[in-house]
Amino acid sequence: MFDYKFLNKMHNSLEPIALSKYPKLKKIKSYLEGLSKPLFVRMTGSGSAIVAYFQNKKDCNKSMTQFRKEYKKYWCISSKTI
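RE: above sequence
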């Protein structure tokens, strides 16, 4: 169920609405999609977070460093699915 191929096919029907209403969210999602090799980027359920999924920790950490430089006031963490 938590295989990235399965998750990549999932759809959040609230995401297009939230991204159109709040252009800043769309900008952040686009920025994350342009970072070092994300498998995919999604807004969580009701939009409390935007999550980028990576195949390995190296790509994740590199992207997290870039994100923190660009968006200094935003909260950013790395976690691992289990």
